[in-house]
Structure formats: structure tokens, C-alpha cells
Design a protein that fits this description.
The chain has a single domain, classed as Ribonuclease Z/Hydroxyacylglutathione hydrolase-like (Metallo-beta-lactamase, Chain A). It is globular. By secondary structure, it is of the alpha/beta class. The chain has a 7-stranded mixed sheet. A 4-stranded mixed sheet has the order 8-9-10-13. It is 18% helix and 28% strand. This is DUF4336 domain-containing protein.
Length: 228
């Protein structure tokens, strides 16, 4: 199983609800890079950290016209530029995020505490040099949708046995409690793996509270999978 990509041209749909949908472009890859499209209060469709796939435009068209493409993590430039150009849209990058805009071949818009008129609040999850990491979260208070591009995920190498949602392996010793513990979302959408839509608030609290105590199990599982 490759870390990224693969031979399949088919995507796997994830996380569908009435105001959005997600997909994994290469279902067989180890990293399970997830992309999402969210309907904003402005009626536009906001695409977050997309990995392109054949026929994904048909999926997006079910929810409306693309208003913008968002980069939520400095390492998640992915196919943001290509998708934005195809839909005659801009790529939205947080005002404080560095080293991203110059690497994207598409019009750039900067945003602060709100993502344009989408109704999604934007907040800083992490901005550090060691390890290099710039990540922003998105939250819609009325819809209860929380988007976390990297700090938590559901893919197996994020999670200790028994966890539905796990803190990124690099962050387990210092989980992002200050950034994320104030939310009680209806759903958590993540950048790696399918999201959590049942008892999502409890899954998030458990992930943050038990990140350190479950560290041996998470690292052991990741090591076993790496060696298998």
C-alpha cells in the first residue's frame, strides 16, 4: 500500500451531510488524505485541502458553485491551485500563514478570524517553528461542524487501540488542548481519514484528555503497521 497516491482513479466519498461532503482521492493509500467541501452561509461551496480526483467536480456540483479553496495547513497545498483555477476561484490562505501563497499557481485571498461570508470562524491551532507547523481550524457555530486539518485524525496511525479520534503522533506529548478543548461539535472533519459524526464532542474530548496516557498504544500500533 503506497503512502500517497496509487493506481486507482476512483475516489471514496466520506462525511456526507446536508451542508457538505468529503472524499479520499486514493482510497488505497496509507495516508488517507481527506478533502472536504462545505456549504457556507453565503451559499457558496468552500473546498478545504483538496486532493484532486477524476469526476470529483461532479460531486462538488451537487452542493453548488465553488466560492473558494482553503489551505488549512502549511503542508496541505495539495491540489488547491489546480482546483481553484478549474473553478475560476481563489485560494484562501490565513493572513499569518507563511511560505504557502508563493507556491500556489492561482489567485490568493487572505483571511483572518472569519472565512469570508461563509459563517465559518477561523482559529489558530498551531504556529510553531519546531516542529514547523502552521495550522488553522474552522468552526461553524450553528451547524456544529469543526474542521481540523492535521492535529487530530481518524486514520489508524493517529489512533491508539480503542480511539475513534486520535491526536497526531508528533503532538501526543503536547496535545492541542488550548486550541480545541472549547468545542463541542456535531461533527469533526479531519485531514486524514473519515470524520466523526456520532458523539463527536466526546470523541474530541477523549482524544485530547488521553493523548499522553494512550501514547504507548498509539506508537506501538503505528510501529506494527510500519513493519507489517
Amino acid at each position: 500500500m503506497p503512502m500517497k497516491g496509487g493506481d486507482s482513479d476512483e475516489y471514496r466519498e466520506i462525511d456526507r451531510w446536508d451542508r457538505g461532503v468529503g472524499w479520499i482521492a486514493h482510497p488505497g493509500e496509507t495516508m488517507q488524505r481527506a478533502s472536504h467541501a462545505l456549504v457556507g452561509d453565503d451559499g457558496g461551496l468552500w473546498v478545504v485541502d483538496p486532493v484532486d480526483a477524476p469526476d470529483v467536480d461532479g460531486l462538488l456540483s451537487e452542493f453548488g458553485d465553488v466560492a473558494g479553496v482553503v489551505v488549512g495547513l502549511d503542508r496541505h497545498k495539495r491540489d488547491a491551485g489546480a482546483l481553484a483555477r478549474r473553478h475560476d476561484a481563489s485560494v484562501y490562505v490565513p493572513q499569518w500563514m507563511t511560505g504557502v501563497a508563493r507556491e500556489i499557481d492561482a489567485p490568493i485571498e487572505r483571511f483572518g478570524g472569519e472565512l469570508a461570508d461563509s459563517g465559518f470562524e477561523a482559529f489558530r491551532i498551531r504556529d510553531s517553528d519546531i516542529p514547523p507547523w502552521q495550522e488553522i481550524g474552522l468552526y461553524h457555530p450553528e451547524d456544529g461542524t469543526l474542521v481540523v486539518p492535521e492535529a487530530v485524525g481518524t486514520v489508524s496511525y493517529f489512533c491508539a487501540p480503542g480511539e475513534r479520534l486520535g491526536v497526531h503522533p508528533m503532538l501526543r506529548p503536547m496535545p492541542p488542548r488550548r486550541a480545541l478543548s472549547g468545542f463541542d461539535p456535531e461533527r469533526v472533519l479531519v485531514g486524514h481519514g473519515a470524520g466523526v459524526s456520532t458523539d463527536a464532542g466526546a470523541a474530541l474530548r477523549d482524544a485530547l484528555d488521553n493523548a499522553r496516557s494512550n501514547l504507548p498504544g498509539a506508537y506501538g500500533r503505528a510501529l506494527r503497521e510500519l513493519l507489517s
